[in-house]
């Protein structure tokens, strides 16, 4: 008789089969394969985006949002909704692989519902607080956050020592609520961010090991993306129809490349991928600055604030250890 863990490993391949079957049904009954002629670039973009999502605590939206917003000149709301929609498939796919295919005890994920609850509070709150910020300001906040995050990632790789995290004190519970609600707020603005903020909380603030923090952040971002895009569809009903066209061509890519990226953690060291992501985020920040020279000083201040938030917590942990 196969043990329980062996039986659970079948969940992932069944999921892949179900996604492809549903995708084929949708595309054959709708736009057809001709849609790839005009939207192929989103498939190519998400090969890298999904791999980053599975390999690091930066979601696929961390690649999609700046490419769409900065370079494709797509409005931030469309870039945000596409990021949520595509992560709802890709990062859920990676999450299913992590939960059922890596042999971890399911108790490892016991705090995900709490993380998701706090994230959703932040997401819903910011979604209903419609701030009329100019597009360059949204871009400034995102490129600063992403660049500060990947820099702090190097710190956590050196000092994370704990296998897991439990919000078993008032201090830890408050920190969990604050970081998760900030992550939900970021996801409401950019379609990504819940994973980054949870990783900072776990690995930088409380010293959880890199791979554990990465796995938990991926699972959370998948669930938050699914909840977020459903919330935008059924509560606001204002998702641009173009998001569907972009999404449908990227689904078959992210379904396999996000879990593939996570599988690479077993085989390849992250240094080269992280250097590339660091350079990409740095280039995004510089490109935004060139296009918005009058706002560069504000961008540097926001970048500094995120560096303090992300890396300063590490020094707090060292002092309080």
How many helices does DSSP assign?
Answer: 13
Compressed to H and E, one letter per element, the order equals: HHHHHHHHHHHHH
What is the straight-line distance between the termini? 46 Å
What radius of gyration results from the CA coordinates?
19 Å
Structural class label: mainly alpha
What is the helical fraction, as a range of percent? over 70%
Proportion of strand residues = under 5%
Average pLDDT over all residues: 85
Largest sheet: none
Low-confidence stretches: none
Q: Total strand count, please?
A: 0
Shape from CA axes?
globular
Describe this protein's structure.
With 321 residues, this protein is an all-alpha fold. It contains 13 helices and no strands. The chain has helices at residues 4-8, 11-29, 35-55, 61-71, 76-101, 112-128, 135-159, 170-190, 194-205, 210-236, 241-263, 271-291, 296-320. Helix 2 (11-29) packs antiparallel against helix 11. The longest helix is centred in the C-terminal third of the chain and has 27 residues, at 210-236. It is globular.
Which short descriptors sum up this protein?
79% helix; mainly alpha; globular; 321 residues
Short overview:
This protein has 321 residues and is an all-alpha fold. Helix content is 79%, strand content 0%.
